[in-house]
Design a protein that fits this description.
single chain; 478 residues; mainly alpha; 24 helices; flat
Length: 478
């Protein structure tokens, strides 16, 4: 362990010296750190004056934490160029060969660059935040608590690791500095959207809610670090001079994996689709377990937390049941307002959204959406229990008929998406990131087209034409 840290620190020292000697990095960042807090302080003064004049206590109370978060983000976005040039910059300058020919291991090279890439912008961010806090302490405004400041600083640290780890992955895969800098938008823009979501948590939530944002960003950053380590090869840096988009080659690789050598549709199902499902046993098990946990957790949470907001008197429960009974007539109009083809398209689109969200988060966001859908089922069953209905009978009549097909389809699609993310962060010296992603997507689309789409079509027909009838028949026994 000591030897590995010494090797990482050796690479980091070399990188630190290169950055300190380069005035083109130090001077702009020093100017940004020293000037931007004063601009932010003046903006804060004007905002305080405006809020005091026209009202807006909620915004005013959370103004300082919001500005601190923004101040921490700006130095990170500007110093991202240092991380983007970590490997491809040295390659263009001709200094990468001595580094790669050293006896250092790949993990030492990568983590050394990552350490410098995170430390430099983080120091600038914290220095800028410190100057702003000194300036704002003179203002007549409520100063953030030490707890809130600690959360903001932790969130800034998580942003730094996330952005730098993504930038170094780009630096390893890019062939020129120009290409790496152009791809920087794929780092800055998503984190900017993430910053907007965190701003909503600051203004509309409480301090503890920020822990969810911190944990989410740290998890995503850890997966990006894992992705970079899994696909970092020094030979790859030296042997590649230019990237070209070989669409024909990509199509051949995707088609070969998708078809699987099958000569007929029946053989395709046997050798391609079911074989892909067989390789998804572990993700399917994980998804099923998490889905059951989400249903049960939501059910027991509703049963435990919702009663204080409801009157449990028999008259109140009877009125709820009567209201539900009166609304059963709306089920007859369900197929008119939501025909089966429209419901099928909606469910198919939702499944594809799961995949897209999973691709940008290595499966975590897609899995989160999956858990939210299953938690909704548990919440509805919990409400049914509170108003005097049998949750088991409600599930059997209202969810199970079409849920056998729909939930199976969602589980298969989510498990396939989870496997795509797992393959990306798994070490594989034989394939690049692009080839790994292409093969994983081919497997997902095999399962999606072969099983998920037919199951969703059957579920839509049952949900529109059969489930409403079963609910009306079962209602007197609920």
């Amino acid at each position: 362990m000591r030897r590995s840290w010494d090797a990482i620190w050796l690479v980091a020292q070399r990188e630190f010296k290169d950055q300190i000697r380069d005035w083109r990095i130090v001077v702009p960042m020093a100017f940004l750190v020293l000037v931007f807090p004063f601009i932010a302080d003046d903006t804060t003064r004007q905002a305080i004056s405006f809020m005091n004049r026209y009202g807006g206590g909620l915004i005013l109370d959370n103004l300082i934490p919001f500005v601190i978060l923004v101040i921490g983000f700006f130095p990170l976005s500007f110093t991202l160029v240092v991380a983007l040039e970590a490997f491809v910059g040295e390659k263009e300058r001709g200094t990468i060969e001595p580094l790669l020919s050293s006896p250092l291991e790949d993990v030492h090279l990568y983590l050394g660059k990552l350490l410098v890439g995170v430390t430099t912008p983080l120091l600038f961010s914290y220095l800028s935040i410190g100057i702003y806090l000194i300036l704002v302490s003179r203002r007549n405004v409520e100063f953030p608590s030490a707890y809130m400041l600690a959360l903001i600083l932790l969130l800034t640290f998580a942003h730094a690791v996330l952005m730098v780890s993504a930038a170094i992955v780009i630096s390893v895969q890019a062939t020129t500095i120009r290409a790496a800098n152009l791809m920087a938008s794929f780092v800055v823009v998503p984190v900017a959207f993430l910053l907007q979501g965190e701003t909503m948590l600051i203004f509309w939530g409480n301090e503890d809610v920020l822990w969810f944002a911190i944990l989410a960003v740290v998890l995503l950053a850890g997966l990006l670090v894992r992705l970079g380590l899994a696909h970092f090869k020094r030979e790859y840096l030296l042997g590649r001079e230019i990237d070209t988009l070989d669409f024909k080659g990509m199509y051949r690789v995707f088609r070969a994996q998708f078809v699987g050598g099958a000569k007929s549709i029946f053989e395709w199902y046997r050798v391609a689709v079911f074989d892909a499902v067989g390789r998804m046993k572990q993700p399917i098990f994980i998804v099923v377990v998490l889905g059951v946990v989400a249903v049960l957790a939501a059910y027991f949470w509703v049963v435990a937390e919702l009663p204080p907001y409801l009157s449990n008197s028999p008259e109140r429960m009877e009125s709820f049941q009567q209201m539900v009974g009166d609304n059963l007539t709306l089920l007859e109009q369900f197929q008119e307002h939501v025909p089966a083809p429209l419901l099928f398209l909606y469910n198919t689109r939702t499944t594809i959204v799961f995949l897209l969200m999973g691709l940008v988060s290595f499966g975590t966001l897609g899995l989160t959406l999956f858990l939210m859908n299953f938690a909704l089922i548990g919440g509805v069953l919990g409400v049914a229990n509170l108003i005097g209905f049998s949750p088991l009978l409600a599930f059997a009549a209202g969810v199970l008929p079409h849920g056998v097909f729909e939930l199976t389809a969602v589980i298969l699609a989510t498990a396939g998406m989870l496997k795509v993310g797992a393959l990306l962060v798994s070490p594989n010296t034989e394939r690049s990131i692009g080839e790994t992603l292409l093969l994983a997507l081919a497997d997902w689309f095999k399962v999606f087209i072969g099983l998920v789409v037919p199951l969703l079509a059957i579920a839509a027909v049952i949900e529109v034409y059969l489930t409403p009838v079963l609910i009306k028949l079962a209602f007197p026994f609920l």
